Amino acid sequence: MNHSASRKVVFYSTRPYEKQVFTELLDARNKTLSSPIEATFYEHPLTASTASGSKGFSDVVVFVNDDVNAHTLNVLKENDVRHVALRCAGYNNVDINAAAKAGISVSRVPAYSPETVAEHTLALILTLNRKTHKAYNRVREGNFNLQGLMGFTLHQKYVGVIGTGKIGKAVIRILLGFGCNVLCFDPEPFPSVERMGAKYVSLDELLSKSIIITLHCPLNENSHHIINANSIAKMRDGVMLINTSRGGLIDDNAIVKGLKSKKIGYLGLDVYERESELFFSDHSQDIIQDDVFQRLTTFPNVLITGHQGFFTHEALHEIGEITLDNILNGGNRI
Ligand code: NAI
Asked: In terms of domains, do 99 and 170 share one?
């Protein structure tokens, strides 16, 4: 319990569902605190030009697409912000060195129901394979023709999992339940993964053997564009590629070429490299300027969701609780 002076906290990029969860959690927490947390919710993102709005707040709470670069951090420092709390796991959007130089601590939510993202990964795989999104529309229109809906049986197929941390392991558990042969690549392998029944192989072997490849590694300088023209060339013809991790893992120009040549047979994305300009907002009345994204949406074998892998009631609740713990108790500092 924190008995220090009251904390003023500002949330950037807040959506109504988040405001509701955090308000409920704060109401409950404040009853137990001698000095309540005062929260302000901004809908706009944090960038160098919106950082001025942090004046008077000790803590800034941000999400996946807020741009916490060195310029932003300088403004936060001038405004005496002491802590940036990420309400997500990935922190590729924060300049950690610049934060340390500015004396601003950074926290994140390293784990919240990894099964949540794993289950969405399987939703993409199963939908792309069995085409339930197309069947839904056909049946509603009275069209019961099965032409074009044929899938493949997952049982005993080779599936490659790149990154075997918390989410990767949850995906592996589910895939093993389907009876798949799971091949994994991770620079830091876990003995528990092999005990579960999956097998670590080189990245090249994974790429060349897997009929489905799913990405669960963080975005960093080593993993940026890990899926590129070279790695795609090593894949099986008609491979299914799934990315619920971070958009920057994939070179999307190479992906478009791979789809056009039919090397890539299915693509499921929950993340996109330039998603900050699109995701989490309604652009249905706008002319979308990102031609690569628009091209991707024209392929019949591409399924894109707008970064909703984390989006369950349970996960949002856990994210909220851990973020408030991080603010109050200084936990999960990076
Ligand atoms: P984690 O830190 O538990 O596991 C990541 C694993 O990737 C580690 O075992 C690490 O050794 C491995 N790795 C690092 N570099 C690699 C490389 N170059 N190639 C292969 N493996 C590599 O992370 P967790 O919790 O499993 O999350 C994974 C990613 O999922 C996060 O970094 C985040 O970007 C993404 N994510 C997406 C969400 C969504 O809503 N779509 C929600 C939460 C996380």
From this structure: no
